[in-house]
Automatic annotation (TrEMBL):
<dbReference type="Pfam" id="PF04055">
    <property type="entry name" value="Radical_SAM"/>
</dbReference>
<keyword id="KW-0949">S-adenosyl-L-methionine</keyword>
<dbReference type="InterPro" id="IPR058240">
    <property type="entry name" value="rSAM_sf"/>
</dbReference>
<dbReference type="GO" id="GO:0004109">
    <property type="term" value="F:coproporphyrinogen oxidase activity"/>
</dbReference>
<keyword id="KW-0408">Iron</keyword>
<dbReference type="GO" id="GO:0051539">
    <property type="term" value="F:4 iron, 4 sulfur cluster binding"/>
</dbReference>
<keyword id="KW-0349">Heme</keyword>
<keyword id="KW-0143">Chaperone</keyword>
<keyword id="KW-0963">Cytoplasm</keyword>
<dbReference type="InterPro" id="IPR004559">
    <property type="entry name" value="HemW-like"/>
</dbReference>
<dbReference type="InterPro" id="IPR007197">
    <property type="entry name" value="rSAM"/>
</dbReference>
<keyword id="KW-0479">Metal-binding</keyword>
<dbReference type="GO" id="GO:0005737">
    <property type="term" value="C:cytoplasm"/>
</dbReference>
<dbReference type="GO" id="GO:0046872">
    <property type="term" value="F:metal ion binding"/>
</dbReference>
<comment type="similarity">
    <text>Belongs to the anaerobic coproporphyrinogen-III oxidase family. HemW subfamily.</text>
</comment>
<dbReference type="InterPro" id="IPR013785">
    <property type="entry name" value="Aldolase_TIM"/>
</dbReference>
<dbReference type="GO" id="GO:0006779">
    <property type="term" value="P:porphyrin-containing compound biosynthetic process"/>
</dbReference>
Amino acid sequence: MPGVLPEGETVPVDGSLPASATAAVGRRGFGVYVHVPFCASRCGYCDFNTYTAAELGGGASRESYADTVLAELALAARVLGDRPPPRVETVFVGGGTPTLLPADDLARILDAIDRTWGLAADAEVSTEANPESVTPASLKTLRAAGYTRISLGMQSAAPGVLAVLERGHRAGRATAAALEARDAGFDHVNLDLIYGTPGERAEDFAASLDQVVAAGVDHVSAYALIIEDGTRLAARMRRGELPYPSDDVAADRYLAAEAALDAAGFSWYEVSNWARTPAARCRHNLLYWTGGDWWGLGPGAHSHVGGVRWWNVKHPTAYAARLARGHSPGQAREVLTATEAHMEDVMLRLRLADGLPLSVLDEPGRAGAERARTAGLLDGARYADGRAVLTLRGRLLADAVVRDLLP
């Protein structure tokens, strides 16, 4: 089931923000995230804020969901009022499975965002999708509506791995959907992989990488399997039905991904993400990683505006009920201190291929960076130029490097 949201201070009923936040909105860019919490079935490893029809019961409806999101968008426009953000640079529709909504509803949401704040002429507009939830016709509708990028959850090319993960699509469907998306005119297509699943062989992951490259996509994300408490996969491991993932195997898989993708013309730009060209990088995720602002619409969605971060109530029924009363769906929020903002900046920017300037580190942090350089975890040439940039070995140990750079 979905994980637990953090605690925080109460969000005002009208959703109002401190003047300091609204005055700063968009200084590092502005995007919109739309959460669609519906799935046809729950994968065994998933603890995202998603719900099947059986889990929802009669308390929420896909049919009315777009209207509910538009109600929150109207509230957001009131909150920002006479200090609207600059043009929206990125929109990302995630889930769940956004493409379980009719393509016309996804088009209507995008049109409302444009009418509310205005889309930049070169805005990146992404949606996630499960491979079985799109068709050539629905993809053409989304493209015509202004969606420019699609991210397909492939996870693996091996039927046995898909079965352990409890994925609903057949092997081969993800790459077929990627080709359909390119035929529909999408500018950018991403395939997501998960590695380190119990039972996955090295040759299974190699076959997945081969299929990704053959599909002609321009972006690949690859993540190590994480076992989250409360999921069916975690329960199976506790019962001894499946072994826990191996860190050594995960490292081997990552090195295999880097080798195969580099040979195919991809370059890493974030520890878990590779793109064929700079233009293919996910600009919405870069907005997150570089401290930009975004408004998150939907149950459980997180937002960040001018140093204030808040998150909505999780259940779609509670979310809709608050908006029906004209209230903010925000459950809680926090105002980031300068120390917290610095820690997040270091943690996120170090994962990028551009790294971060050594000048943003304090004296203990620079000492930690020097240790990391000496250990071969930071690139020596970039270090000499005043930047902390992870080496390939450093990417494998990124969390440890971050800890050494922070107090």
